[in-house]
Design goal:
FAD/NAD(P)-binding domain; globular; 5 domains; Rossmann fold; five-stranded parallel beta sheet
Length: 668
């Protein structure tokens, strides 16, 4: 039944709206409508008195509908609905007319136009509201288990927090060990703590927690379902070793004759074909790299028919020969396992652009490396035992140049944003070099120093005053080889002079991007990401951990590059969201979903093809579309593509929308 007693509440929003829009005149004009029994204004409708005004007015005027003219519904729609519900009005009989972003702000130089436009926006909203149905939230059963994708510091923190609350948690990490990029670091800024000392207890807590099921060297293969009820397929990659038997003794590593670049050391060292990621790896298990293993490569070529097997020729099995537990079997033990969970956290971390992407800055030379690679050379557990050595000849460098903002703040050659952590870790690395090699000459080329954390600015001053790092405010334009040295050429922007220094090594602070695997994961989860691989949140300020898919959250550097402190904080924040979600036996879901009229549906499938959430199927018997309410997010893509209007979103039906648009288009 159409609404006849509507109340309209117009917010001043301080001077955000009232500074441009004549709110008194708007209230008077809207009050002339026959279906509006109350039209009033208040300085801040979102405040407690503003909400109380709505509650009291619903009761006093027996309102059957409410329009609040204020800011974006993203901000305060829920607030206004709750206020009306407290007074006994169905919350879906409340609509928001956005007269701040749509009228006041874009027409600050023309108050008359802003006022007229505000009146039209409110009138259109009233017309839409009049056809709204009273709705009730949909109840969805929930599986009280969680999945965390990514075993870096944010993912581990999230998994531990959830597990500590008594909720079983599954942690999936693509690498053979948990720990992420933090596990690779030498020391952490601004306290110069040992990251392994901080991290390994947490890693062992994860591995030993009774409520955590750990899958390392594994990837999420497929995700189906909806908030509270996800079915996840996890691919356990082939290790060619029985991890139930492997003790991590390392005897196999000592006899393996084949070698390859170490992934953990970012190609700054070699490892054997059978390897353990790190001496402190969790789990401490060996696995075989099939791309470099002599035996597995031979068997592969035989299988492909490239070579013929020879009789009485023993293929390499040195690792298996020395393995006392008989854990090495050379068999492809790849496996797909399925898990059911109610919520998912994506904490897939970050990567840095390779030095090779910047040949003009010397990236083509062996002694010009990324900062993350340099971390491995500085790490006491790294390939050079904490004393940096040149990759080309193993010599200890007597001079090093650090270059900031390589690819960052550079839309043409890299990314348009600041990578945030580069200034601080470059300063840290310069300090560590001076600490290890007091006489080394260290040059730090920067554009701006961005030290935006607790104790960060003081850390920067320590590097200058206590360690004697040479800071040069200048943009480096070229790095090239001169004999045995590398010439770094740039401009000192403080003096305007050309600066050239010859050094033994160059370290590039290359731009950070989202993990290379995150796009595939995002597609499987149906969550958005940007062109640089960062996962998109629902709202940067109000919902930084949520995604548009209910029950899926993001944490740490998967959302955007951040330091350890912020990553841990977001890990705990996402965990809190999951715990709140899984704390009830059933979940409430927004009822603003697509509905199908089977009388006019032709079952053409166009709506199914347009649904990004796989919420629509075609009934094979009735040949009509069927909407899974638990999966549907009410986006309206199906309705927009239906040739017969058989599928429409509740409270956004075609007639409602067209009438609202007609009012907006009227000449005023």
């Amino acid at each position: 039944m159409a609404m006849k007693r509507i109340g309209v509440f117009i917010c001043h929003c301080g001077r955000n709206i009232a500074g441009t829009v004549d709110v008194k005149r708007v209230a008077e004009e809207i009050g002339k409508r026959e279906d509006v029994v109350l039209s009033t204004t208040y300085v801040f409708m979102c405040s407690q008195p503003g909400q109380k005004l709505i509650e009291d007015s619903v009761k006093k005027y027996n309102l059957d509908g409410v329009v609040v003219a204020n800011c974006s519904p993203t901000l305060h729609e829920k607030t206004m609905r709750n206020a009306a519900a407290r007074a006994g009005l169905n919350p879906y009989r409340v609509e928001i007319a956005n007269i701040r972003e749509w009228a006041a702000w874009p027409h600050e130089d023309n108050p008359e136009a802003a006022t007229r436009k505000a009146i039209r926006i409110i009138n259109a909203t009233i017309e839409k509201l009049k056809a709204n149905a009273s709705l009730e939230p949909i109840e969805v059963p929930v599986i009280r288990r969680a999945l965390v994708i990514g075993g870096g510091v944010a993912g581990m923190q999230a998994a531990l927090d959830i597990a500590d609350s008594g909720i079983e948690t599954i942690l999936v990490e693509k690498e053979p060990t948990i720990g992420g990029n933090m596990f690779r670091l030498s020391e952490t800024f601004p306290t110069l703590d040992c990251p392994q000392c901080i991290l390994t207890p947490k890693m062992n807590d994860v591995a030993g927690h009774p409520n955590i099921k750990l899958y390392t060297y594994s990837e999420v293969d497929d995700v189906e379902g909806f908030m509270g009820n996800f079915k996840v397929k996890i691919k356990k990659k082939a290790t060619f070793v029985d991890w139930n038997k492997c003790t991590g003794c390392g005897e196999c590593l000592r006899v393996c004759p084949a070698h390859a670049d170490s992934e953990f050391d970012l190609k700054m060292a070699k490892r054997t074909s059978i390897y353990i990621a790190n001496e402190q790896a969790v789990p401490l298990k060996a696995l075989i790299d099939e791309n470099s293993c002599i035996r597995l490569q031979f068997e592969k070529k035989v299988k492909e028919g490239k070579i013929k097997p020879k009789k009485n020729v023993k293929i390499c099995s040195k690792c298996a020969d020395v393995c006392e537990p008989n854990a090495i079997h050379f068999q492809n033990n790849e496996e797909i396992v399925e898990e059911e969970v109610g919520a998912i956290i994506v904490a897939t971390g970050y990567e840095v652009m390779p030095a090779e992407a910047f040949p003009e800055l010397g990236g083509k030379y062996p002694d010009v490396i990324t900062s993350l690679q340099f971390e491995r050379l500085l790490a006491p557990s790294g390939p050079t035992a904490g004393i940096p050595r040149r990759p080309s000849d193993g010599k200890v460098p007597e001079s090093i140049a650090f270059v900031h903002c390589v690819g960052s703040r550079d839309p043409q050659n890299g990314v348009p944003y600041c990578s945030r952590i580069c200034c601080m870790y470059t300063i840290k690395q310069a300090m560590l070099v001076k600490h290890a090699m007091h006489d080394a000459a260290v040059y730090d080329f920067y554009i701006d120093i961005r030290s935006n954390g607790k104790g960060y600015e003081e850390f920067y001053h320590r590097a200058k005053e206590e360690y004697g790092v040479n800071f040069i405010r200048g943009k480096v334009s070229k790095v090239y080889r001169v004999g045995d040295k590398y010439r770094v050429q740039g401009v000192d922007t403080l003096t305007g002079r050309i600066v050239e220094v010859d050094v033994d090594m160059v370290v590039l602070a290359t731009a950070a991007k989202g993990s290379s695997t995150v796009k595939e994961i995002a597609k499987k989860l149906r969550i958005p990401y940007d062109e640089w691989g960062w996962l998109k949140e629902t709202h940067l300020k109000l919902k930084p951990l949520e995604t548009p898919v209910g029950g899926v959250y993001i944490a740490g550097a998967a959302q955007f590059i951040k330091d350890i402190t912020d990553s841990v904080s977001q890990g705990s924040g996402a965990a809190a969201k999951v715990m709140a979600l899984l704390s009830k036996p059933e979940l409430e879901k927004e009822p603003l979903l697509a509905k199908v009229d089977p009388e006019i549906c032709a079952g053409c499938g166009r709506c199914k093809d347009q649904c990004a959430y796989d919420a629509i199927t075609i009934d094979p018997v009735r040949h009509v579309s069927v909407v899974n309410e638990a999966l549907c997010e009410g986006c309206g893509a199906c309705s927009a593509n239906c040739p017969t209007t058989a599928i429409q979103v509740v409270n956004f039906k075609k007639g409602q929308v067209i009438r609202a648009v007609d009012v907006l288009a009227e000449v005023f």
